[in-house]
Amino acid sequence: MMTDFSTISVDKVNFVFMNLIKTGMEDSFRHKGLRKKLVDLIRSKGITDKDVLSAIDKVPRHLFMDSSFINFSYSDQAFPIGSGQTISQPYTVAFQTSLLEIKPMDKVLEVGTGSGYQTAVLLEMGAKVYTIERQRELFLKAQSALNLLGYKPHFFYGDGYEGIPAYQPYDKILVTAAAPNVPDKLLEQLKVGGKLIIPVGGNTGQSMVKIVRESETGFVRTEHGAFTFVPLLKGKAGK
Ligand code: SAH
């Protein structure tokens, strides 16, 4: 039988629409099962921080990716999220987050919101998150995904090379794109006793750098293996 759409009430249309949204936003047993397997895999790759693993277990990564990629959401890989950018590989998210040693109520500056997935992981760990993105389209997309899921970071659209001076100093700073060197503004905005994690290097690969600010002028730098990130770019993109 053909449906005569002219007779369907606005309420019914809204109901169908709401259900479509709900189905699209579903976090099913299958998703949860796949997530448990991903957590096991990340643990087997050497991540031991229980709070990090528990956050990865909780955040529905598939809801931060385009629906066509739903089958790939829980494989340990980076994926395109539009505007030439990627959602980081889950192992890399877990590794960077472990190096930060997040404690509840830590004030964290995240440079490179991207999909918002890493932001959600930090929030699950009880951090207060200030996140900045230079691509307008991604900034808006991440904002709606995080808000729909009830995550409440402070969002900023701008150039993360500048940090977010208004809310400094930060207990932790996490950069999720590769820089040729550590931006001075980020070092300035780090609390004494705070930690900064940033991949440093050129286009072909980077070293994961951890900086601990031991005093007003004392910064201790250590390196933690090779990674590949998209580049940290200057200025803003989009209107
Ligand atoms: N944490 C993200 C990773 C996204 S990839 C996630 O979990 O999905 C890195 C992001 O950094 C990209 O979205 C890119 O647009 C952004 N980026 C690059 N240079 C930047 C800058 N100077 N300031 C803010 N964001 C930047």
Summarize this entry quickly.
This protein is of the alpha/beta class and 239 residues long. The chain has helices at 10-24, 29-44, 50-58, 90-100, 117-124, 136-148, 184-188, and strands spanning 79-82, 85-87, 107-111, 128-133, 154-157, 170-175, 190-202, 205-213, 219-227. The longest helix is centred in the first third of the chain and has 16 residues, at 29-44.
**Total count of strands:** 9
Gross geometry: globular
**Overall pLDDT, averaged?**
91
Gyration radius from CA atoms, angstroms: 19 Å
The share of residues in extended strands comes to: 15-25%
Q: Which CATH class?
A: Alpha Beta
Query: Helix tally?
Result: 7
Q: Please give the CATH architecture.
A: 3-Layer(aba) Sandwich
How many domains? The number is: 1
Structural class: alpha/beta
Largest sheet, order of strands side by side? 5-4-3-6-7-8-9
> Topology as H/E string?
HHHEEHEHEHEEHEEE
Spatial gap, N to C terminus: 47 Å
Low-pLDDT parts are 1-6
Bound molecules: S-adenosyl-L-homocysteine
Largest sheet report:
7 strands, mixed
How would you characterize the overall build of this protein?
With 239 residues, the chain is of the alpha/beta class. It has a single domain (10-227), classed as 3-Layer(aba) Sandwich (Rossmann fold), CATH 3.40.50.150. Helices cover 32% and strands 25% of the residues. The chain contains seven helices and nine strands. It has helices at 10-24, 29-44, 50-58, 90-100, 117-124, 136-148, 184-188; strands at residues 79-82, 85-87, 107-111, 128-133, 154-157, 170-175, 190-202, 205-213, 219-227. A seven-stranded mixed sheet has the order 5-4-3-6-7-8-9. A two-stranded antiparallel ribbon has the order 1-2. Helix 7 links the parallel strand 6 and strand 7. It is globular, with a radius of gyration of 19 Å. The termini are far apart. Mean pLDDT is 91; it is low at 1-6. Residues 85-88, 111-112, 114-115, 117-118, 132-135, 138, 159-161, 176-177, 230, 232-233 line the site of S-adenosyl-L-homocysteine.
